[in-house]
């Protein structure tokens, strides 16, 4: 068995440096107008600076171009892809097939990761896009462990699974917050909403608070809990899952660094020592994360152990 890649989402170039030290293997970065729900907004020059740092450390950089692209954005996307080719990033993360066509037209040869968010739910479709240039499928977060293992067993491409952090439950291309504030006649709040990522939707019936923010891609609403399966990684290791992702969006840099170091230790102990050694420390690693977990963000295991009803 080979070690899975530990994939993280840095918020800045300085955060990249810290996460290299914490033990990350690969980094998802990009620019807001092309990538969805990025932890940090990296300009082209910052992508280049971060790529140089990441490559110097022997790590990999993946640039997100997984937004939905209307016709008016195609020319800008094409120029952006050429810049990524020039910089030498390792992979591109896409959902819209327009990226495939543009790569062909622009002579961009960067390998692709297929990430359609909630619809990457079976190995047949993953293999379909694999035949069209994708080398990895980023699985939907709404899959159970059994479904993940079945996909990995049959997939002809790499498989990436999220193991920590929040999940996007809803996205609209519309500026829903802006519409709401306009309805409330709160002009000042409209001006500030794009930079405000500490807003919540309150559900009194379920006693949940859903993080919500708005950017150039529309409005995004996230899960009320953070997924954490640091103590349940054994079967993913055994199955040979290629990449484990820590989603750091809306978290503090320090939080992401601590969580990355904990997962790094879990992976290294399992593969460099033994499965029993991992079993001995997994509760301690979970406790480390629980100590820094914000009270407003309870931990759970996401959909991994939920029963699928057909």
Automatic annotation (TrEMBL):
It comes from the Bacteria. This is Peptidase U32.
């Amino acid at each position: 068995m080979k070690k899975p890649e530990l994939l993280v989402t840095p918020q800045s170039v300085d955060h990249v440096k810290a996460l290299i030290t914490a033990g990350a293997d690969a980094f998802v970065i990009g620019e807001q107008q092309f990538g969805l729900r990025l932890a940090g907004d990296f300009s082209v020059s910052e992508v280049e600076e971060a790529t140089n740092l990441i490559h110097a450390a022997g790590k990999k950089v993946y640039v997100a171009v997984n937004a939905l692209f209307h016709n008016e954005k195609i020319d800008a996307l094409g120029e952006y892809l050429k810049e990524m080719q020039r910089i030498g990033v390792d992979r591109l993360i896409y959902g819209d097939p327009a990226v495939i066509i543009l790569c062909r037209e622009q002579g961009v040869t960067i390998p692709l990761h297929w990430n359609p968010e909630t619809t990457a739910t079976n190995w047949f479709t993953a293999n379909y896009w694999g035949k069209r240039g994708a080398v990895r499928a980023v699985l939907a977060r709404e899959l159970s462990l059994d479904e993940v293992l079945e996909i990995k067993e049959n997939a002809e491409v790499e498989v990436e699974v999220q193991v920590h952090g929040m999940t996007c439950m809803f996205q609209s291309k519309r500026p829903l917050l802006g519409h709401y504030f306009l309805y409330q006649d709160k002009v000042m709040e409209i001006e500030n909403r794009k930079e405000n990522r500490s807003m919540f939707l309150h559900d009194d019936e379920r006693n949940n608070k859903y993080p919500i923010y708005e950017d150039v891609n529309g409005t995004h609403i996230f899960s009320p809990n953070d997924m954490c399966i640091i103590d349940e990684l054994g079967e993913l290791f055994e199955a040979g899952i290629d990449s484990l992702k820590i989603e750091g969006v809306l978290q503090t840099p320090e939080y992401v660094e601590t969580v990355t170091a904990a997962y790094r230790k879990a992976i290294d102990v399992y593969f460099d020592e033994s499965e029993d050694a991992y079993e001995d420390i997994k509760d301690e690693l979970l406790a480390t994360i629980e100590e820094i977990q914000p009270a407003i963000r309870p931990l759970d295991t996401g959909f991994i152990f939920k029963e699928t009803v057909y």
